[in-house]
What does this fold into?
Amino acid sequence: MRSASDWFDKYGESHKNGINKAIHWVAIPLITWTTLGLFQSIPHPFGDQLWLNWATLVVLGAVFFYSRLSPTIAAGMAVLASSMLALNAALIEAGVPLLWLSIGVFFVAWVFQFVGHKIEGKKPSFFEDLQFLLIGPAWLLQFVYAQVGIPIEPARALESA
It folds into this structure.
């Protein structure tokens, strides 16, 4: 199994150009947010609770994936995803058509992603492995963590001599 650092290094190979990186800092959070909005818009059998829907199940699966890479990345992604779910719930409560908003922003963000990769001269990583769709948001988070001194890898136990 790849470590978080292995995934981030591999992802970073096609994200070296400054313009492409800048696009990713905007587009990846928008894609993540709108993907959750799309899942929140799917009718579900869970009743009227705004917090229990298909997006919540997607987040639980994603956090499980992240927990296998790094507990700190999993925790951060859980907080970020929960914030996005709460924003979407507030938009729904305010009468905003979340489905159409999500479709529009999702489409525009992906156009920018592909423009960034055209500038980079490399294909998006998910063409190699779909798991990179989950790595992208965590890749950004690890830069934030580095700025504030939060480790992404669990501390390794010292081997006895």
The chain has one domain: 4-148. Residues 155-161 have pLDDT under 50 and may be disordered.
